[in-house]
Amino acid sequence: MRKFLAKGVAVGAVALLALTACSSRSDSDSSGSTGSDKGFAADALIGVALPAKTSENWVLAGDLFTNGLKEAGFQADVQYAAASGTVADQQSQISAMVTKGAKVIVIGATDAAQLSTQVEQAKQAGAAVIAYDRLITNSKDVDYYVAYDNFKVGQLQGEALLKGMKEKKPNGPYTIELFAGSSDDNNSGVFFNGAMDVLKKEIDAGNVIVGSGQTDIKQVATDGWKAENAQRRMDTLLNGSYTNGKTLDGVLSPNDTLARAIITSVKGAGKPLPVVTGQDSEVESVKSIMAGEQYSTINKDTRTLVKQTIQMVKDLQGGKEPEVNDTKSYNNGVKVVPSFLLPPVIVTKTNAAEAYANDPKLSPLTK
Ligand code: BGC
Known about the structure:
- Residues 1-23 form the signal peptide.
- Residues 46-321 form the Periplasmic binding protein domain.
- It is a single chain.
- With 367 residues, the chain is α/β, with parallel strands linked by helices.
- The protein has two domains: 31-142 and 301-343, 3-Layer(aba) Sandwich (Rossmann fold); 150-299, Rossmann fold (3-Layer(aba) Sandwich), CATH 3.40.50.2300.
- It has helices at 11-20, 56-71, 86-99, 116-124, 150-168, 186-204, 217-220, 227-241, 256-268, 283-290, 302-317, 352-355; strands spanning 45-50, 75-80, 104-107, 128-132, 144-148, 174-178, 208-210, 250-252, 275-276, 296-299, 339-342, 345-348.
- The N and C termini lie far apart (44 Å).
- The protein binds beta-D-glucopyranose (BGC).
- The site of beta-D-glucopyranose has 13 residues, from helix 2.
């Protein structure tokens, strides 16, 4: 299994500081020299290469990029990697975008470490490369990273898990299981490290016990972010470590799709539901939270993330340096990629109405 890039436990703290610090925008030169020699045509082709539709956020992103880029006057080429054979698929999609003369290529990587050749091709052809939501590793040619602060996502998940268990059962120790995302997605390690930044001290102190003893990311990863893989592992865990009436108090799930698979498994086994975390604010999970089943999710509003990315594209078009607010946290193994990080929000039943007040799709579910 490929190694998760060590994003460093310090990343969250640094990112937090960076979010509150002044952003380093260098396009406000009063002389008016904004580097417009570096710009490109206002109707240029912009490529967007997205991974397979492993969660709702990717489906939303595709539509938002297609419409948003067109509205901004660009030509948009938005592609998804196929559900199987995704790496080769995405590699050839990016190469085709370069050949067609795209001026910016936005990439939500299927496999963080498998795109350096294509990203280099883009660079040599004069295109800028923006890593979207997932960092691209082992490449010096990634220009920018735009994402929610994914280490913070993990920390919020870890905190929610502890809080949810305490609400249900005031006194520990608590027995939990850990799940992580797909090992080819750089985010999986970042989420997991963020969560462990919160949970490890509780585990070390004996307040929290991992029932199966599986605490290594290699043991808890979910290949392809697939629901069936998480469900199968949960079935196995329940049959192995939770017989004889042993209670499972909580499950760290990295996203909503896997959370619902875990809940399905527990229900199938006829066991009481543990506290289960999530991420993405998927419709079915928001319903589950309101029904008191899934405990938490994360709001990483895709509309804001796409808007921020399109703003970067517009800046590049005008020959300006796009705004970033973090130049320390996201090292891709070759360089620290200048990033624009947005703050994720934890959502439980308690704050759902407030958190989704401006989301016409989710807000009615919280009434
Ligand atoms: C995204 C998550 C998503 C997961 C699976 C991650 O890279 O950040 O929001 O749940 O991919 O699609």
